[in-house]
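Case study 2.
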Amino acid sequence: MSMSSASCDSGVPSNEVKTDASKDPFADTAMYPPIKAYFKGSLKVSGVHTIAYSMYGNPEGKPVLFVHGGPGGGTDPFMARYFDPKVYRIILVDQRGCGDSMPFADLTDNTTYDSVRDFELLREKLGISKWQVFGGSWGSTLSLAYAMEHPQRVTELVLRGIFLVREKELQWLYQGPGANMIFPEDWQNYEAAIPEDERGDYIAAYGRRLRGELGEDEMKKAAVAWSVWEGRTSKLRQDPWEKVKSRFGDDHFALAFARIENHYFTNKGFFPRDGFLLEKENIDKIRHIPTVIVQGRYDVVCPATSAVELKRMLPDAKLVMTLTGHSATEPEIIQELVRATDGFRPQH
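Prediction:
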């Protein structure tokens, strides 16, 4: 099901949504106020896939591409609030198989460089010459991959929670030992979904279930366990169990999130070599692009070592360490991301 198209009156920037501040979880943060999309649409990008996208802010403003995480996480309207809507044309895209993109949770022709091509198709469709690229977690991975393929199309990079899909990063979060030593209670739930004789390789064991090889019931159970594990590890101060379960444990969300993540991680991000994004030949392509990196010092999902290694390769990039975990919704991370996008606003 593709999203319907709907333009705002006369192409004027969207008005702020009137909300009760007491019901806005970001009311006390640096985020801009809620706004409505002025356009929602879809783009057929292959014989299988149609991606959904939405646009917020100023239709004549500076374009910015929001690259969501996961992979498989999809977008949410609050993600437009990291940008000043008066000056930015904010473009949120659901990558293949997730959010409102169709077919849902489909792994066919779903790779990193398929998404890179999708962004280019959308950029051309929208008549955009260059855009800022903003992404966190998996979004930082895909943002880097896109920028390396199309450096002439990127005005700036704003990256958060750097993830390079290297073996040591996957081992840390999904295989152990690593994050399981910090969140042992939650790891018990993650490992309980896998029989003891398969626990030598959790990514492979989850993969068999998430691909449906052991039936639909096992697939759904594995999807929830995988997703909740990531949700429980994403903040310095953990959200209550029920809050995490209601989001990450939702059957619909978890199916795409877990299936697509596992698919990418099983295939090492579809990169030709471990550490590919840090290779000098690739880094040299983006060295000229102004870059801000926001990294949680206590990020357990994407540990700070990757951000530091990227900064070492990009000495002109600005690296900001926050006293937070991984989540883009932690107040200090919000503050620094908004500071970065404000700093790249057009100068009049």
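Confidence is low (pLDDT under 50) at residues 1-14.
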